[in-house]
Amino acid sequence: MVDRPNKPSALAATPQQPIAQASVNIDSAAGRVTATLPTGESVDVLLHGATVISWKDASGDEKLWLSEKAILDGSKAVRGGIPLVFPVFGTAPDHAATSKLPQHGFARISKWEFLGKSTSESKQSGSSAEDTNVKLDFGLSSSSLDEKTRALWPYDFDLIYSVTLERTNLVTSIVITNKSAEAFEFEVLLHTYLRVKDINNVAVEGLEDSKYIDKVDGASTKTQSSSITITGETDRVYTPAKGPSEPVVVTEGGKKALSVVRDNFTDLVVWNPWTEKAASMADFAPKDGFKTMICVEAGSVKAFQTLEPGDAFEGAQTLYTL
Ligand code: TA6
Q: How confident is the model at residue 27 (pLDDT cuts 50, 70, 90)?
């Protein structure tokens, strides 16, 4: 090989392109926090109830259902998205400690605080925007409750709710800490309204052989024999037979659309109001909107759990786009 005295030095390695970061926008006036990944996925969270009201994939396709008449001004629970149910599911007239609370408790109608964000990307060599995610943390403590609610449920507690947006999934997790000197009992659930194209083409798989309470049939206990289809008002509390890590899959036209994996949540509620119930809810719009939604709700609601002083409970769901 000819030795050339002035051969150019090797090109400096192409400078590592900085990894694009997720962006987080805090709109204090609207009480809303929005996060967007460099690849386009986004999530929108209201400080009211720490309610996720939008989750979109990279193409802008909305995965959650939100009523066109959802009240977002903080005066009422949001009809849609992912309302938070705590410390009671539904109403519990026979449970002294929570019998005076509003339906589904106070978490979804309280003003939460935005605690901060953290982003992470894979540190592996060659990682790119593909690996970025963003975690938003929200907090609610007993000291920030209004006096009326404090009087109805006089326990000291801290709630931390985290919303983590990744490219193909959304993770929502809640940590409940008992700061009281006495134990308290609670139920907790993530009341997720999933968007579908046409409920008539929807099936829910993964709950086969699971026992459930059928709230539209006298709260009778039944066993799910096959996949679930929705042909009328449906309101069921399942105890999934296959355990929390087994995905519960929503299919449309036989194709997997979304799945829910639980962590430390023992139950799963499937709800669709259908025609009459949809008509009876003033904030449910359009009235045929029941055809484009199904609630698949991860939680622990079949019985109250006891949290001892100083102890904490953590539960989470991961929603996957498929
Ligand atoms: O999760 C199902 C359910 O408990 C239904 O019984 C129905 O009441 C639904 O929640 C909506 O409750 P909400 O208080 O938001 O109108």
A: very high
CA 235 / ligand 1 centre spacing (Å): 8
Instruction: Show the domains of the chain with their CATH numbers.
Output: 24-321 (2.70.98.10)
Whole-number pLDDT of residue 16: 64
pTM equals: 0.93
3-state secondary structure the chain: CCCCCCCCCCCCCCCCCCCCCCEEEEECCCCEEEEECCCCCEEEEECECCEEEEEECCCCCECECECCCCCCCCCCCCCECECEEECCCCCCCCCCCCCCCCCCECHHHCECEEEEEEEECCCCCCCCHHHCEEEEEEEEEHHHCCHHHHHHCCCCEEEEEEEEECCCEEEEEEEEEECCCCCEEEEEEECCEEECCCHHHEEEECCCCCEEEECCCCCEEEECCCCEECCCCEEEEEECCCCCCCCEEEEECCEEEEEEEEECCCEEEEEECHHHHHHHCCCCCCCCHHHHEEEEEEEEEEEEEEECCCCEEEEEEEEEEC
Query: Could you tell me the distance, in angstroms and rounded to a whole number, from the CA of residue 53 to the centre of ligand 1?
Result: 17
Catalytic residue positions, numbered: 191, 297
Q: What digits encode the pLDDT tens for the residues 91-106?
A: 999 999 999 999 999 9
Please check if 103 is assigned to a binding site. yes
